[in-house]
Amino acid sequence: MRALLVVNPQATTTTPAGRDVLAHALASDLKLEVVQTSYRGHAADAAGKAAEEGFDLVIAHGGDGTVNEVVNGVLRGGPRPDKPMVGVVPGGSANVFAGALGIPRDPVEATHVLLQAVEHGTSRRIGLGQVFADVTENGRWFTFNAGVGLDADVVAGVEHKRAKGHNASPALYLSVAFKAYAQNVRKPQHFTVEVPGEAQFDDVGMVFVSNTDPWTYFGDKAIQLNPSTSFDGGLGLSALRTLRVPTVGRYIAQVLATGNPKGGNLVRRDDVGYVRVKCEEPANLQVDGDFLGTTTAVEFRAIPDALTVAV
Q1: pLDDT digit string (tens) for 176-187?
Q2: Which residue, of 14, 47, 193, 212, has the greatest Cβ tally within 10 A?
Q3: What is the rounded distance in angstroms from the CA atom of residue 31 to the CA atom of residue 137?
């Protein structure tokens, strides 16, 4: 099997020695080529080229951002049966996509799982989400979550901090999240949300979209907003009508305690074909923890059976 290993050397938990061991193990069973990324979008470019050249498997070794780029590269031109499978060996801080698929976080264990899948010819066809906005050109695929407003504010803030040398950690995300929430309380954002078959929801304060469960991880704890959402169905929507402290506090408490939030100020849907959002003013947009920019209108679409993953 012809395979490309795409390595992000800047990923949180990767090391040169670990990457060498990983490449050696994979090369024992695969006709392997290795690319180390050196710029934003490099993983997508390498994966796209591998798809054009008829590779059977593209393996992402890095965090969720690396996985997202690999998926977007493989799926350039749209899903087709002849597209390569995607494999994942986690190397980031959260590794949400890998966790949702049941892939171990430990790179050695994940490599063993991947090689077993190759040996036995096992794979899984999964659905993905796709985002269309003025900052995404022909659309951007996402594997586990996306959002506009508060969560994207947090992603943008963390990216800014990491660019200044801060390490990704739960403490960093929590600090940035508090600041982003305080800013939203002082200057609320107002969204209009549409889902199939319902009247639009007006004056919504924040919008989270899920492609699977969990939505993310906080350290080792899975954060579940739409526990009935999976790779086999549509998208999940979790939106709050207001960001007032009592509402947000109750919502966070439910998320942490039960992973099944409910309430009169919560708009939640677990299996929809699309979510359309409009904003009064430009709002931040993120997919899979990657900040894309600002937009005033965005559509999130569920695309079934979009990708084959080696698991």
Answers
A1: 999 999 999 999
A2: 47
A3: 34
